[in-house]
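Exercise 7b. Backbone tokens:
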């Protein structure tokens, strides 16, 4: 593994998950998944990476849920023109 990839994992590992924005958390999670899939990490490190990955997954899901709650859909009137907004409903 290159020093860049190792430091990409080391930086988020030293931060609390709540301090990361969505993109940083997702990037760190992707790095962790790659490292776990590669089999490069010893068992103890793999367990720590898995736990950190689970925290980051939960954070990403929380941030996505919050963003979804803020999205509003534009509603159209009978004439086809925008008439207002309604909460997003993915269902």
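Sequence design result:
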């Amino acid at each position: 593994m290159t020093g860049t990839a190792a430091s990409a994992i080391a930086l988020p590992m030293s931060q609390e998950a709540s301090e990361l924005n969505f993109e940083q958390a997702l990037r760190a999670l992707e790095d962790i998944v790659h490292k776990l899939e590669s089999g490069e990490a010893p068992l103890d490190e793999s367990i720590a990476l898995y736990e950190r990955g689970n925290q980051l997954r939960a954070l990403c899901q929380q941030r996505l849920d919050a963003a979804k709650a803020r999205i509003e859909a534009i509603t159209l009137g009978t004439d086809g023109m925008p008439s207002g907004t309604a909460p997003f409903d993915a269902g």
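Instructor comment: The first helix runs from residue 3 to 14. The chain has a mean pLDDT of 81.
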